């Protein structure tokens, strides 16, 4: 269910759902793929309980740095099926002050994972915004290119986990 203030990215990833879930929910794995290269995630905190923290620090070769990153809040976790988090709230459901750039508007991410058969995962990410202006700002920042790139990096990282096993 989406509406006019949502941005949606859907992919079928060539990796099994358990490894995609591990890559998405383990901070050490998430740091490997969550930023479009050459940007990097240098810090990551993720507490997979409702009210838990979701915080990343992204840096880039152009001097881009989110600082310590505004901590988001995990809202919902269904093992190997769904992860919902928001930048509007911090840990413990405390309202956030919004920052600058990509942290200047609140949004909620609903990420779902379904077994697509043959070792593949149906991956869907929906970014829900409070209004059209925030949606358009996120889109202009490169939502589809950025989130599309990291979906490919997620697939690659999850596949590498199978090779290591």
From TrEMBL:
Protein's recorded name: SRPBCC family protein
A Pfam family reported for this protein in Swiss-Prot or TrEMBL: AHSA1
Residue ranges of every copy of the Activator of Hsp90 ATPase homologue 1/2-like C-terminal domain listed in the record: 14-157
Family named by the database record: Belongs to the AHA1 family.
Organism: Sphingomonas hankyongi
